[in-house]
Structure formats: structure tokens, C-alpha cells
Fold these 3 entries.
Entry 1:
Amino acid sequence: MKIGPYDVEALLDGRFGLDGGAMFGIVPRPLWERTNPPDEANRIELAARCLLIRGGGRCILVETGLGDKFDDKRAEIFKVRRPGGGLLGALERRGIVPGDVTDVVLTHLHFDHCGGTSRRENGRLVLTFPRAVHHLQRRHWEWATAPSLKDAGSFRAEDFAPLADSRDLNLLAGESELFEGIHLRVVDGHTTGLQLVRIEGPEATLLFCADLVPTRAHLRWPYIMAYDNRPLTTLEEKRELLPRAAAAGWIVAFGHDPDCAAALLAQEEEDRVVVARELAL
């Protein structure tokens, strides 16, 4: 998809499973299982989807996916599958090697969004994209390195530890236009200092929703994850952003929907935004 000077494409790092009840919070299972049927362990199917943005002399990744550092036990718990070599395999098929990536934008540091930031090489952790500047909100970095008891299990220090001593960590202070036409919006419901990525051009505007709206099922206001630290904040953030996206004709991209990478929205009722049309990305 062409947006301004950029070619934008969704890449699949892999698929995994999380508990359906945790993914939908207070919503009863008979409601959420209609759209997201669970397996025998109550896990629903999720994608670990990243964005590749190329143009303007840059090769930018939004998210790095699950990565390849799962041991067998954790891979089974989270039902991890990474066919085709995951994110690195997808990049290779496009003629891109890790050293070509100039920038990595991490929405936040939960393991399913930043697991591919590091890898093991000769028994030590190294950055997967050694020449890239990694962009992250400072408030989130501080939170992730000293998380609350509630969400400590969502962070794995090994995923982002190599960044601590790297000159290629750019800690940001709030919302900004990171590059021409690439804007960052900060939300705090899911976790402190999560940044959404909005790409604007004459052809279209695309909003990468990250974990504010992980799947299209989460477009409904009360469909909020139990993982969220501040669910009422998430509710207000969704009610502010999603009608705006629908009215302006933005493309919304889903990081975790197993079948739908992106969509156009419509305001069906005053308090209801729905998918008007699914889009390939």
C-alpha cells in the first residue's frame, strides 16, 4: 500500500494463543466465542503482526513480533507457531537483511510485540537489527524496566535488555511526528506510554492500533482486555479515536487479529463502530 513517500506492508511474525477470558475481560464467553472460538485450553488464535514501512531513504519496522527465544515449555503454553522463518523470513523474501533496517518503532515492550528485538548469538543476547535506531516512549521504558506486579509477566527483560547499553535507543517524550508523515499517538490504558503509529499521505491515513484495539472484535467499547492496567482509560481512548477514524476514513490496522490485517470503519450507531470493509495490507 502506498501512503505518501512510503510503501506500507503488514508482515506476519507468527501466530500464538492467549486465554480468551483474559483477552475479553468482563465480556462473557458466550459472546466473545462467537467471533473468537477458543481451543481446549481456552486459548484464542492471535497473530503477531508487524508493519514494514519503506521510503524516504528509510526501512522502518513497527514491532518485532514474538521472536525466536521461546523454550519448548513456553512455546507450548502460548501455542507459538512461526512458519516461514517468522519476521526475518518475511524480510528475507523481500530482499531485506537485518542490517538494512534503519528504524524500529516499538509500540510497547510486551513480549508479543518486542520479542524479536533481540536474539541469541553464541550464547549472548544481541540486537536483531544492529544498525537500527529503536524508538520508544521514555515513560514506557521506565515502566517496563520496573513493572507493576499486575503486568510483570508481560515483560521479558531478555527481549529488550540489549537496548539498555545501546546508543541506538531513542527515548521519546510524548507525541510527535517521528518522520515526515509518520505520527506517534500516546495512550495509557493498556500500559503506560504505549505509542500508536499513524501514517498520513494524500492517498490514505493508516492507524496501527497495537493493543488499544488488538482485534476487530475489540472495536466494541466494553471489549477490553483484562491485561489492561487502566481499563476505563482504554474505554475513553477507544471512544475518542475510533469514531474519528471512521469519520475521516482512516485505515485501521490490527496487530493481533488472526484473519484481518486492516479495515475501514463505519459509525453504525452513536456508541458503536464496526468494520465497513476488510482490507489486505
Entry 2:
Amino acid sequence: MLFKVRNDLTAVIPAAISDLVESEFGHIQDWSSANSLGINLSKTKEMVIFRPGSRAKHIPPREFTDIKQVHAAKLL
């Protein structure tokens, strides 16, 4: 008998390539599909982090609106 176990994934994408977020998430979705693993979008969250005192507080528009944006997250 074969069991596949999924676990949490945390992807960190630097601001310098933040325009590639949709592309990177697409790669994760493709890999998951190829390995018969699903992504539960209702449990998927996005958090944008800025350095303290940063002037760059503008969050670029996102293509994937199914993913909720949060201000805090707990990583176990």
C-alpha cells in the first residue's frame, strides 16, 4: 500500500522578483499536479512583509484573487 503525505509549504519570494509571484505559484501548482498532490486554496494565504520604516508600502496588484492576503501568519 502506498500513501502520499502532504505537508505545509512556505515560499519566500524577494521583492526584487515580486513580479514573478504568479509564475512561481504556477510552478508549485504544476509540480503538485504532476505528483498527484492537491493545493487547498481555502487554506492558502499570502503575506507581504516590508522592512520597518520602508517607504515601499505599495502592494502590486495580484492575478490570483482566490488566495486571501493576511497580515500575520503562524508557522509551526
Entry 3:
Amino acid sequence: MWLNRDLPRTDRIVLEAYRGHWNVERGPRLERVVFRNDIEHSRALELVCTTEGEVDIVTEVAPGDGRRVIESEHAELVRVDAMRVISGIINRGSDAPLNDVRARRALNLAIDRDRLVEEGFAGYAQKLAGLTPPYAAGVPEGQEPYPHDPDEARRLLGESGWPEGRALRLATSVELEGPSGMVAEDLREALGVEVGVTVIGEDDLLGAAHVLVEKRIALTFDVLVHSWFDLASDAPPAVLHREYFHSTGAFRAGPVLPEVEALFARFITRTDPAELVQASADIDRFAYDEALSVFLCAPQALYAVNRHVSFKGYAATFELADTEVSEQHWSRRG
């Protein structure tokens, strides 16, 4: 199913508190919530930082704007360890030897994740060791991010039989162009190969997604820098690993892996929480050991919030169930 992004949206959506709900201990905490679709994001950020009464919460603040929010008079920056990951989808069906685990490990060893987090995300991210965010359930014990080791990366790439003069083809979206440029620099310098970067524009993004998901046309990239999210933190493989590695995964790029199928067959039958966590860890460890992706980072969700608003962020989605305002909030000062 594909979402039609061209449908018009109403300028505002207004939610009114329902006081007849049975769970009175939970709330409501807010009388009225207005979602505004009539303000550009940059303007909304300016309003929450410089005024009161127009905007109280701005979602999806860019890492580069974090300092502006922190230094503003009216807003505070709320950081949430979100169920989001940025990784490189490795095309194991490429004409390059990316079906060789040595080449995939070489890609991972080429990346300077410390620099990526600090410079690419202004520190508002955590390095990935595998595909599971470090604060979620199912992180294998003792599993650390691949080190930045250019010498070993170049050695492994040579052993994999990378063709002389063959450039590595990197693709990304406009949204991830900045971090992807850093990834390309690392790959180029560590591996000693040329790296061509293709930035997929907004007009072409849906078509490119069709090609990846439907798997009817040969993919034209070796590595696709890609962002994805999960709606729960207790069993990440259900939405993360499945999409990237399982036979039913929308973002799988390469042949089906029998080992992954077997691991998921066990995963989906676990009902005991402890066994589910272990099954999740087993999947992530296999993905890590086989270097099935270029594991990059888990960016935080950033919110600019009026200083008189108590906002509790959720790891998976934007929720206001636990949000309330103080007596000093503009709406209560009369």
C-alpha cells in the first residue's frame, strides 16, 4: 500500500479533552490541543524560540538547530532516545563482491562513527552495533560498534576481490545528504576506491522506493544510506531486521538468507518475554557478524518545547498523553 502524499491537509486539527473517559487517573491533562499545518517548520521553530502563545511544541528539530533552541529565551530542547536507525543497505545482489562477508565488514570498518555522530548529528545520536538501538531490548551482550580501522578495511576489501577501478555506488535521499557525504568520505579514504554519490530528489523518491520494495528491477546502488523506525522497543526485529533482511522485508537487497529465515521462525513463536529478548539478540548478532548492513547510528528525536510545558517524549511515536502545562503557561495566565 502506498500513501498518496498529494492530498490536501486542513490547516488545523483541534482535539478537545473528553472528561467522561473511565481512566480519570491518566487524564486528561490538557483541555485543548491544536495541531497546526499552516506554518512552515522554520517559522514554527522561530515562533517557539522567540514568542509565547503561537507554538508550544515543534517536532523533528534538526540537530543543527539544537543549539539555537537551548539558547532561546522561551524554549527548551527535549531529547528522546527514539526507535530510529540510520544504516547503509548493502546490495548483496550487486555485480561487486558484496555477497562476500569480507567486503561487507570492510564497509563497516571504514566508517568513523564518532565523527559521524559529533559532526553529522551534533552529538544527538548514538553509534549502532548491529541494527538494534543500544537502549532497546535484544542488544547482544558485549556487542560493540565496528571500530574505525581503515587498514583492516582496505585489506578485507582486497581479499574479497573488489575489481580494480570499480567505483562504489552510494545512494541516499536529500534528507540524509549531509551524513551520507561523510560516509562517502570515510569509504573513499579508508578503502582507496572512488565513491560515486547519487542523491535521490523528492520527485524521484517514491519511484525509487517502488524499485527497492518490489524487487523486479536490478538495483543501481551498492550501498543505500537509509533511515527507518520501529513502533516498539521490546522486540526490534519485528520491524527493523525483518524489513532489511527477511524474505518478506521491503528493504532487503540481495538473496534470501536461510539462516535469517530460521532465526525468525524461532522469533515469531516466542511468547515468554525473556525468550523473545534472547531471540531478538540472536537475530541482531547474526546481522552484526555477517555485516548485513553498514551500521551507522540511532539519531535522537529532538523537540523544541515551551519552557512552561512539561513534555514527556516517547521512543516510538509523538504522544501528548503525559504532557501538561504549568501555572506560568500563557494559556493559564489569563
